[in-house]
Amino acid sequence: MTAPKRGFAAKLGRGSVLGLRYFYGLFYLFAFINKLQQGYAWTGYPKQVFLKQLAQIDPNGLMAAYLTGFLIPNYRLVGIVVTLVWAAVAVGLLLGLCTRWAGALAIFATVNIGLGGFYDASLIVLGLIALLFVVLPTGHWQGLDRRLHAKYPRSILFR
Amino acid sequence: MIFRVARVARVAAATMLLALAGCAKPTAPQVQGPFVIDIPEYCTVCIEVLRCEGPVQRVAYVMHEQGAWAQIATIWNYFAEFFRPKVEDFRKLTIYELAPDMARAVVVREGLEARLDVWNRRVELPEAIVDQKTGAWLTRDGINRGQCTHLPRGPDRQFVATLKETSP
Fold this sequence. Notes:
Low-confidence stretches of chain B: none
Number of helices of chain A: 8
Distance between the termini of chain A: 22 Å
Oligomer: heterodimer
Number of domains of chain A: 1
Order of helices and strands of chain A: HHHHHHHH
Shape of chain B: elongated
Structural class of chain A: mainly alpha
Helix content of chain A: over 70%
Largest interface: A-B, 31 and 29 residues
Number of strands of chain B: 8
Strand content of chain A: under 5%
Structural class of chain B: alpha+beta
Shape of chain A: elongated
Number of helices of chain B: 4
Helix content of chain B: 25-40%
Mean pLDDT of chain A: 93
Number of strands of chain A: 0
Strand content of chain B: 25-35%
Mean pLDDT of chain B: 87
Distance between the termini of chain B: 64 Å
Low-confidence stretches of chain A: none
Radius of gyration of chain A: 18 Å
């Protein structure tokens, strides 16, 4: 039995989504490298960033409450989690490994960036692109998910 | 075919990265803080208000938040910054010439543009330059014409609202 032939538009669509996935993966990889260079996971740098951001936003808003109530008091933990999440998204999207989960993590990161007061229209676009990787099986189109799903068909990690 | 399209995407990405890598970093080191006037170049939703005062003139410069497309374009800026640091940014600008009490505008000029020289930390305005390190208000030739202050978030929007109400 042979797979049904796809039209040019479908192929172009897949290619575009894959291109976006690699771009997005590189985006997170570069951000992860920046985090390492800044010592984000092991220095007081995140606290400086959060305090500076706090001065930029409405002190009575939800974002200020999130900064003062959660991010600033827990900046060390937040620094570690951010660094790990950035690395996981980069690896997941570039290798097509647990791709849907990497997309979900990217949405989680995007929401938290917005809650931290670093919001603008670019976050909507970033969130929507990440949603594509959750909804579409891009790891089966190209990536390790296809092989791992064949090997472990019951695992929800590689779907 | 899917692999061919994906290959084209990869080649395009590699070309783009090489092109970015070819962009040289400025040779002089970037001016470092602390700054009297600290303008976050990546904050696309911030309004920046500089109030400048000299012996002969008082002016408020209002740099507006960026439009939706410019905000979306910051994705590319963040990406490109890995290869070449951001050296400039542009903001829509309104200039209010202030009355001696500094509380109302006597002349308004809209539709102008300010350039943020991110590398040298200067704000380039149509007829002036503001040194972010010292807050000095200079002519385009570098002659001192006074001092600028950067209004904090909150009071800045109130001040702009007052200027709009009182402007001729």
